[in-house]
Amino acid sequence: MSRQRDDGLGAADSLRLQVQRMPSNTSVVHVDGPLLADTTAPMRRTVSDELLRTPELLALNLTGVTTIDTAGIDALTSAAMQAGESDIGFCLLGAQHGPVGAALSQANLTELFEMFNSLDDVGIPLAPPHPGRRNFLGRPTTGP
Questions:
Q1: Where is the STAS domain (predicted)?
Q2: Rounded to whole angstroms, how far apart are CA atoms 80 and 90?
Q3: Which residues contact 61 (CB under 8 A, 6 or more apart)?
Q4: Which fold has domain 2-120?
C-alpha cells in the first residue's frame, strides 16, 4: 500500500512523502524534496503514524532529499528516538551520499543511524522467521 501526503507548499519547494508497506512488516517512507524547518512537520506526522502501526522496521528513503537543515536533522534524530522507544527497527536508506550524508557528517551524527543504500542491503526476510533464530535487527524472533 502506498499513500502520498501533500504538505501545502508550492510544487517547486514541496516535500513529497510516500509510504510503502511491505509484506515483511516493514514500512518505507520515501522522502523527496527539501527537508527544512518549514517542511519537516508532514514527515514527523507520517513517521508517527507509521510507528503507531508497529512495523518490525521503519526505513526512511532519503535518496530524493534535495537539501536539509538543522530542523531536518532534528526530525531524523527524533524519528530514530521514537522508533527506539517503541522497540521498532529504524534505518535510513540512501543517506550516505548527497545532502543528508553531508549534513549528518558535519553534525557528527552519522554513528547514530543505521544507513543502507537500499532495502536489499538491509536483508529484509521474505518469509516469517523461525523460533529461536534472530531477525535482521539481532532480536530474538517470535511466532511459528
A1: 28-126
A2: 6
A3: 28, 29, 30, 31, 93, 94
A4: Transcription Regulator spoIIAA (3.30.750)
